[in-house]
Amino acid sequence: MATVDVKNLRKRYDDFVALDGVSIAARSGELVTLLGPSGCGKSTTLRCLAGFLEPDGGEIELDGQSILATPSNRRGFGVVFQNYALFPHMTVAENIGYGLKLRKCSADEIKTRVHDVMSLVKLTGLEHRMPREISGGQQQRVALARALVLKPKLLLLDEPLANLDARLRDEVRWLIRDLQQQSGITAFYVTHDQSEAMAISDMVAVMKKGRVAQFASPREIYQKPVERYVADFTGEANFLSCRPLRALGEGRMRVRVGGAELDVECVPSLKPDDAAELLLRPESLALAGSGEAATFRGKIVKSAFLGASQHCEIALADGGVLKLTTPPNTPVRIGEDVGITVDRSHAWLMPEVAA
Amino acid sequence: MSGTATMFAHQRPVGLGFAVLIALLYVFLLVPLVTIVGASFTAGLLIEFPPRGFSLQWYREFFARRDLVDGLLLSLRIGAITAVVTTVVATMAALCGQVLSGRKSGWFQLGMTLPLLVPELLTAVGLLFFLFKIGLGKTVLGLQMGHILMSFPYAYVSITAALRQVPASLDEASASLGATQWQTFRMVILPLIMPGVVMGAIFAFINSFDLYTISLLLKPLGGNTLPLALFDFLTYEFKPTAAAAATISIVLSVIGVALVQKLVGLQRAF
Question: Per UniProt, what is one GO molecular function of this protein (chain A) (predicted)?
Fold first, then answer.
């Protein structure tokens, strides 16, 4: 059980600013994901947490105590790497027992604890295999077991699923989440995959060029992003540039867009006449049925049948394009004029770039 | 041999011309060895091939000659010490080269392999002056230092290559599990680079066993290594004793290679 406070972390390499004041906090038992494209500083942050890198400035506190002076081998954090980092000359059991051996545990204790953790990650029976003799998914579970057997104060995972194929990725992802929740270990998880981040996290920090663009729950990140960058990174999205007309009380705004006037929720700091973007996720849009009042009108320019659904792109009169999904059997013809209805509770107005 | 057959079974058929080329290459490499080994067993009085009859008299002669046996023993002793010292120092140097980054690493690499790039004679002359300056001129210790210097790059290159194969994340994983740097080295790094270390030791030994120029300049008074003793011997006599001595050297080298094969496997060593 541990709380972690990362405060204003800074790191630069020659001309490249890797971390430009990163602040993130994890409450006890939370899984916090650092999400962003490569080079955004997410791995650098994790490596500072692990003690593999020394930040130039800022502070990292564990339960209120600074850990910056503590070397990585005395931090007591478990680390899981993208390439598994198993010791290739040791068996699965020896890999998992490595940390216990360093702690001078008795042979019996090592055996029991290794056995227990192996059944936890469903690897029983593979004790005497070498890492190269087991699959990638199994290797990553060994890496997870090797970290968990020491009951770490903090679990750090650096793109643990990136080298696995799609099917295994799901399986190992749920395993990680289950184990993390069962043991109540605070965890930091680095990924560039938004769906992974959504599914697994209590909190997500979307990172952009060495800064945290937004730090919030997955729901908030997805539905109420602070800027276009965050919305773009967290899933399919339509953006319509527009100018807010006037404020309608706390966090609501009337906006003119695509030939219509809408009342929508917005980023609280947004003021009328700021350059703004209206975020409409594809699932909040639908083709209007006959007799239904449409918000926008446009022409179908593209459609694709995806099996469970259909994907459509619709060009609006003012030049904007909206992507939306329809049920698989809705008749869709290219060039057809259609109306679009908007679920206003899921429309969100935000600045193009957060201040 | 079935192992060899399956090993080649999956490879694409080798062109006839290529096969002939390889065969010629082997002939070129092996003919001198076969000739010298054959000549050492001659019953005649001259180094000749094919040998005249069969006898072990030249081996008896070799082991009866104090100067040659002393040379062999000195070479073996210096070679063994060179192998051990060079391997330890080269491992430390390779670890150091590993943590340097970018340009520094390039310069370090160059510095460590310098004895390979500078002509042996120049190194020998330089060392000669240096050793006299520090009072080790014409001593076994001075000669030993020269051999270590000349053999160092072979061990360094071999160990560095092995170290490059070890991903940095293993080091970090080990640290995150609570290991000190020494524990990580002993339990993770060293076992993984062992093939390179053993290779380095054997290279260093064979190289030391073979050194001529540097030994000639640095040799202690009254002490000859085997190559020096052999050369002295051949200056006055052209007897198959020299062939016997050469055969003994070849056997030692083969034992070295066989040891690598036995301990680490040649596949992993290269």
Answer: ATP binding
Which domains occur in chain A, in start order?
4-223 (3.40.50.300), 236-351 (2.40.50.140)
CA separation for the pair A348, A279 (Å, rounded): 5
Domains, chain B: 14-55 (no CATH), 66-269 (1.10.3720.10)
Q: Which of A47, A98, A154 to mutate to test the interface with B (most CBs of B within 10 A)?
A: A98
CA distance A265 to chain B (A): 46
Do B176 and A147 count as a contact with CB atoms less than 8 A apart?
Answer: yes
Q: What is the pLDDT of residues A285-338, one digit of tens each?
A: 888 877 778 888 889 999 898 888 888 999 988 778 899 988 888 888 888 888
Numbered residues of chain A with Cβ closer than 8 Å to any chain B Cβ: 50-52, 71-79, 81, 83, 85-89, 98-99, 102-103, 143, 146-147, 150, 156
- For the four alpha carbons of B181, B182, B186 and B192, in that order, the dihedral sign comes to positive
What's the ipTM? 0.85
Q: What is the pLDDT of residue A331?
A: 83
Tell me if B173 sits within 8 A of A98, measured CB to CB.
no
Which is it for strands A260-266 and A252-257: parallel, antiparallel or unpaired? antiparallel
Q: Are A33 and B159 in contact (CB under 8 A)?
A: no
Distance of CA B87 to the CA centre of its chain: 12
Answer yes or no: do A73 and B191 touch at CB < 8 A. Answer: no
Interchain CB contacts (distance < 8 Å): A and B: 61
Give all strands of the β-sheet with A321-326 in edge-to-edge order. A285-287, A337-342, A296-305, A310-316, A321-326
Q: What is the DSSP letter of A289?
A: P
Task: Give A355→chain B minimum CA distance, Å.
Answer: 38
* Choice between A272 and A181, residue whose per-residue pLDDT is larger: A181
Q: Which chain A positions have a beta carbon within 8 Å of B191's beta carbon? A: 89
Q: Are strands A337-342 and A77-80 parallel, antiparallel or unpaired?
A: unpaired
The pair of structure tokens assigned to A80 is 């899981």
Tokens of A195: 């769906």
Report the run of H or E that residue B168 belongs to, with start and end. helix B168-176
Please tell me whether residue A6 adopts helix, strand or coil conformation. Answer: strand
A96: closest chain B residue by CA: B177
Q: Chain A: residue nearest B165 by CA?
A: A88
